């Protein structure tokens, strides 16, 4: 269907259903939006399904550019309503739109799949509907973080004619790697709870059963991998990534993939996952005030230039700005400064830190003929990492000291050490089980003993040769695993130590592996196997951390 014929149909459908949409929606609790008008509308899609949206219009009559966010989560909280109105007061119509089948939106909930480049293109249809409304100038931008970031990458691939620019915070590219799976680890308990977002909770259960049929990275998951379609993403985008967020990999990859096609800028700072939280207080740390990023004000500058034609110079600012973290609370500690670059990552020297006997981490490889560190693992009694969010910038000692957790640390540094770029782990392991998970955590240990978590990332052993196939361990035989743990930019001050922590469980953040080597499905913990795992640190099988060092 061509855009010329389709857009008027959307506009007509909207005019017919607008009043009924208001009647169908229960009024929200009264809230002072300081003159901004709040309306609930149902936006028609090409198959007749209508998506629930809350629209915020500035005072007065006129035409304004439109900016919108797509979420499956609720849009009716006072914080969301107030921040939407705040943006509207800057001279924009703001639309907050729920995914198909979530909250009040009609249709079957299928996660992000209806936003993609298939038969349904809900992001495309939403953008074009907003562009044709009487209060719209026809210029549309998108914004949002996490789910609202993923949605924007899907949107960019479909290339709606009226989409002019985007502003993404803590975004993602591949849902196999950064959503439903992490390092191959399935998360059925986490996503079972998503039924609370669904208009029909049974939709979520059906989706989980569908995922069970696709344990490997196959055509099903490629259909939700925006990274395969960067050549289609041709709009300017400002992307924010947060060092203390496992999804920083998505923010960086998105910038790298889009850069050849349109103006792209990347900002990387010392924050946790989320939107409107880019301040100086992060986890257990308080950074200097220069760590704060004025997200709303900068987003308005970005939109003002691309959607209103304001010559404010924002498009000429550096392609990459990144915050080099340093120790906090230490006088004259190096770091805690912003740097600029034309691309990412900057030049660095990959340096190996090897695991040794006695919990020691060194830059020399082990010489022992036979050496390893073992621990037991019972999936029914996992080690604990509380919560469902990555606990970055927090003291990890409560986890490090648990029974089946092992740590290795350098001697106190005699001079500062800068790490900027991607950190990788390369492990040689043995196990008595055919499968397990390995969780690698990297910390900055302060002189007072605090072990501040910089990053972590797991790998399910059966995927050590690629996520498109499963290769089980041979019990008792050495196997090599190599994967990226994360991105960072940090200067460890003299007197600090670099620490590596290893375990095979960390629940509920990472749901346990049953270790049987059997099929992964929503109820796979009904049968489990205990095991002993050994991390090898010997001459023929050296385990190490690969670290990008900047001199």
TrEMBL record:
In terms of Pfam families, this protein maps to: Peptidase_S15, PepX_C
Q: Which SUPFAM superfamilies does this one have? A: alpha/beta-Hydrolases, Galactose-binding domain-like
- Keywords attached to this entry: Hydrolase, Signal
The record ties this protein, via InterPro entries, to: AB_hydrolase_fold, CocE/Ser_esterase, Galactose-bd-like_sf, Xaa-Pro-like_dom, Xaa-Pro_dipept_C
Which molecular-function annotations from GO does this UniProt entry contain?
Answer: dipeptidyl-peptidase activity
Q: In its keyword annotation, does this UniProt entry include Chloroplast?
A: no
**Residue span, Xaa-Pro dipeptidyl-peptidase C-terminal domain:** 300-546
Residues spanning the signal sequence: 1-23
- The answer to whether the entry has keyword Magnesium is no
The domain of life is Bacteria
The protein depicted here goes by the name Xaa-Pro dipeptidyl-peptidase C-terminal domain-containing protein
Q: Which organism is it from?
A: Prosthecobacter debontii
């Amino acid at each position: 269907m061509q855009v010329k014929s389709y857009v008027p149909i959307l506009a007509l459908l909207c005019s017919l259903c607008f009043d009924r949409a208001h009647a169908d929606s229960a009024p929200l609790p009264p809230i002072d939006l300081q003159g901004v008008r709040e309306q609930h509308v149902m936006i028609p899609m090409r198959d007749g399904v209508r998506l629930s949206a809350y629209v915020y219009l500035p005072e007065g009559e006129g035409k304004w550019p439109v900016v919108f966010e797509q979420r499956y989560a609720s849009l009716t909280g006072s914080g969301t309503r107030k921040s939407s109105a705040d943006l509207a007061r800057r001279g924009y119509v703001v639309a907050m739109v729920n995914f198909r089948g979530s909250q009040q939106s009609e249709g079957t909930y299928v996660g992000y799949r209806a936003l993609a480049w298939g038969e349904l293109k809900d992001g495309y249809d939403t953008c074009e509907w907003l562009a044709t409304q009487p209060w719209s100038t026809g210029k549309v931008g998108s914004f949002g973080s996490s789910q609202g970031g993923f949605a924007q990458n899907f949107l960019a691939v479909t290339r709606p004619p009226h989409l002019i620019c985007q502003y993404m915070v803590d975004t993602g590219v591949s849902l196999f790697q950064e959503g439903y799976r992490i390092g191959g680890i399935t998360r059925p308990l986490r996503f079972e709870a998503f039924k609370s977002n669904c208009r029909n909770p049974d939709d979520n259960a059906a989706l989980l059963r569908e995922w069970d049929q696709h344990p490997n990275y196959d055509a099903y998951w490629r259909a939700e991998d925006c990274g395969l379609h960067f050549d289609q993403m041709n709009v300017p985008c400002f992307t924010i990534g947060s060092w203390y967020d496992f999804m920083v990999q998505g923010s960086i990859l998105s910038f790298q993939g889009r850069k050849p096609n349109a103006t792209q800028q990347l900002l990387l700072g010392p924050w946790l996952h989320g939107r409107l939280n880019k301040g100086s207080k992060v986890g257990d740390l308080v950074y200097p005030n220069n760590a704060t990023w004025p997200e709303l004000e900068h987003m308005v500058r970005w939109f003002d230039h691309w959607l209103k034609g304001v010559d404010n110079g924002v498009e000429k600012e550096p392609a990459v700005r990144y915050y080099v973290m340093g120790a906090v609370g230490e006088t004259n500690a190096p770091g805690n400064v912003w740097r600029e670059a034309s691309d990412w990552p900057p030049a660095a020297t990959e340096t190996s830190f090897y695991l040794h006997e006695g919990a020691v981490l060194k830059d020399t490889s082990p010489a022992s003929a036979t050496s390893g560190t073992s621990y037991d693992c019972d999936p029914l009694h996992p080690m604990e990492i509380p919560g469902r969010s990555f606990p970055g910038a927090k003291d990890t000692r409560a986890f490090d000291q648990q029974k089946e957790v092992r740590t290795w640390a350098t001697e106190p540094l005699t001079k500062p050490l800068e790490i900027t770029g991607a950190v990788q782990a390369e492990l040689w392991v043995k196990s008595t089980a055919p499968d397990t998970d390995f969780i690698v955590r990297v910390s900055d240990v302060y002189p007072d003993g605090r072990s501040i978590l910089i990053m972590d990332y797991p790998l399910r052993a059966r995927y050590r040769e690629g996520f498109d196939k499963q290769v089980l361990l041979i019990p008792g035989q050495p196997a090599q695993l190599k994967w990226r743990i994360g991105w960072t930019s940090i200067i460890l001050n003299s007197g600090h130590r670099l620490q590596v922590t290893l375990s095979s469980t960390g629940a509920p953040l990472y749901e346990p592996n049953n270790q049987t080597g059997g099929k992964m499905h929503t109820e796979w913990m009904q049968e489990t196997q205990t095991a002993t795992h050994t991390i090898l640190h010997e001459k023929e099988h050296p385990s190490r951390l690969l670290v990008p060092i900047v001199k």
